[in-house]
Structures
1.
Amino acid sequence: MIHIRSLPFLLARRSILPGLCVALLASTILPAHAQTADEAAHAAERARAAALEAEGKALRAEAEATYEATVPGCYEKFLVNRCIDQAKKQRLETIRRARELEAEGRRLTLAERQRAVAAKPASGEVPTAPPAPTALPASPALAPAAPSGNAAIAPSPAAERIRAQRAEASR
């Protein structure tokens, strides 16, 4: 016979087990899903940076093409220099917008690189040092010769001739 007190305990114990299974399953799935969402956000940001830089390059090309097309028409006008100055001003305004777009793209790229560098040490990876050289060069002929103890530097004949000419000129 089941006691009335133990019945809620049994029901509670039965309801804990499925809850624990669901919690365990969720804890294993959520970090992987969050990581893929994080990677997707980084990929979207990289794509945005590339699009901004491409748009900046397109604006620069458009500015140059417009300027090159406008300048020859200026020579047919009465105020040639004013027309050329206006074309230059328009070109510079377009290039300024292109620079802003390219700078924003570079800022996004830099932020992505900085996040990657910051995430590397946090993930426990130790930067590897370059491998130490294990052996000396095989052929001693490639190694430079040691200087002798009584090595004297001999001046070139051209230098001696110039010194002699200068000495005669100063007398």
2.
Amino acid sequence: QSFHPIPVLTLVLYSGDKLWHQPYSLIERMEIPEALKGWVNNWNGNIYDIKNIRVEWLKNPKVKAVIEGVQRIYQWDRDKESLNDLVLSKDEAIVVAIMTNSEELVIRLEKEESEEIKMCEVIDSYARERELQGMKQGMKQGIKQGELQGMMKEKISLLVRQLKQKLGHVSKELVMQIEVSPEDKLDQLTIKIFDVEDEEDVLEILS
């Protein structure tokens, strides 16, 4: 009777470019008779589509900036004027680019010297460059397995560089743990990187 377990809440943030139309619960994925559904243990997933989150409800200013940035990028329809007032810190802009799978934009942002990024200017320059050079193979449909691995290595490299900037030093053991972590854990680390204070925080996110 003295045992009072502490609940653990697992939230999933979906950041894909399409709206989430998949099931939210385990039982929705099962093909079972209607009469038996009441007897089957169910699990409800706390899945939130970033594009539908109401940013005015968010209290952390950095998280709010990132979520709003992702929403604005997906709403952008090649009209740079719609992004005129979107100004992010360099770190926030890089996280937005990672979450929208804009690897080339990440590389461009990392080269920016300013710590304040006007997204309309960066994206306009980025779009014009892509029109001249064409889309790289990593952005084309039917990406090969080797290219996927390359994208994963780039994501890991970006996370390690950001952690070094934030913590000052990253141990070899932590780098190895990041390298063997699944992509969903790396995505969680990307979202929570602003709250990381030490390597223990990183390991807890990856566990």
3.
Amino acid sequence: MAGTWVFLRGLVRQQKHWERFPQLFQEAFPRTRVEPLDLPGNGTLCDRSSPLSVGGMMESARSQLQRKGVSAPLNLLAISLGGMVAIEWLHRHGREVRSAVIINSSLRNVGNPLERLRPQNYPAILKALVTNNSAEEREQLILDISSNLYPHKRELAAKWATYAHTHPTSSRNAIRQMVAAARYRAPQHRPHDRVLLLSSAHDRLVNPVCSQRLAEKWGWPLVTHPRAGHDLPLDDGPWIIQQIQRWQRGELTS
């Protein structure tokens, strides 16, 4: 498998939060070029205002690639809010994209608000976004919600706190990203043929039924991890790679 793979992260996450997954991916697919990007308001773009639309985030990602001299055809691998950006990309500029892998995402018209963001986590999420807790405490809270299998959460929370200090996402931008995600609706027609959906059966942030409905709506293949949490690349990156390899071999169909 050759070509460029663009990696897109989710709400208030930056490209560093992929941790070792890009390296694992590159080792599994040595002929590929991996391009992790930050959405406006996060990571290297933390000084920018987050767009209030998923379309605005998508156009920012396209502009970043143009500045880097990266041209189509592209492949997209995206999680959560990044998955919405990927779907909008497929919808608006599908000819630029060869294939896409969308992980634990949701859209307004395929999931109700209680499914798109599970209500038991509302207090913890609000606390993480707007309180004066230390960065390490906030990152520990996020990890506790998003990861089921990662064995060293305390050490990782300390590491992620350094990311937050170096490239902080403001509360204002976090809210703007949540608004954009809440507003985003699925296109009326299937935006692309070559898409693989991955979900986590024990996702405590987004109900996996959202991925199931996307699969049913557009006839895309869906594979569900039996134990992982929302941050599937962190919990079991090798499993993601295995599913992509199966998909490339034609073993996964809708």
4.
Amino acid sequence: MVQPKAPALVPNSSAARALNLIGDRWTLLVLYAAFMRVSRFEGFIAMTGMARSLLVDRLGRLEAAGVLERRPYQTRPARHEYHLTAMGKDLYDSALMLLGWEMRWRMDPACPSHQIIHDPCGHPLRPVLVCQACTAPVKVRDIVLSPGPGAGSEPAPRARHSRRASDGPGTEGVGGVPLHPMLERSIEVLGDRWTAHLVAASFYGQTRFKDLQAQLKVASNILTDRLTRLVERGMLERRLYQTRPERWEYRLTREGRDFFPLIAALMAWGDRWLSGEAG
């Protein structure tokens, strides 16, 4: 009798749980539309260009996770709207950090989403992660990451088919609907499960191939592909640390390190909503 294979274990991480939930290009597009106050099915179709079956799937996932809730607005025939719950609205901090990263590295003065105005004072707003105690801007090199009370391992999430942003329609979107400029760059990182997890692992000090593979439980060809893409996009840089045979480590660039506020925001959101009893 063949014994069932034990599930692979990965370190507990609130950021990883958050990425497992929203780290998908189509889920990100649905959330973007929801934050833009789209609530009806046809509105989501119009803004994202998603296939109807795909939209049904992503709306269902977000509803099951508690990020969206359905509200009837018509009875004959039955029609529902999809609204952000408290859990969904709490992703606003993460959305701001994502936008802040976009504005620092891919600022587009013609993009309305890159022109945030702070209503009380009327001045342009630039989202920045600051320390709650001293209010100084937080840089990744100024912090120490240490295991919390929920440290340990948990089963690796089940793999799902996730089309990479570069495999999709690009800036033309789907069905001729353009991707919003705010998402064009960010979706390349967050919209692919393995790319997002790889960036998150880099913030925990993992730089070498075998260490990254051991932590992420990812196939070597997939890891090679994602490392190459992140180097090409300027998020990681290769550094030779051994010559015979050649061995390379992968370190975050300035742009890559500047992604940390978003990872921190997702970690805080995951702590609040996805930690469970273990923390």
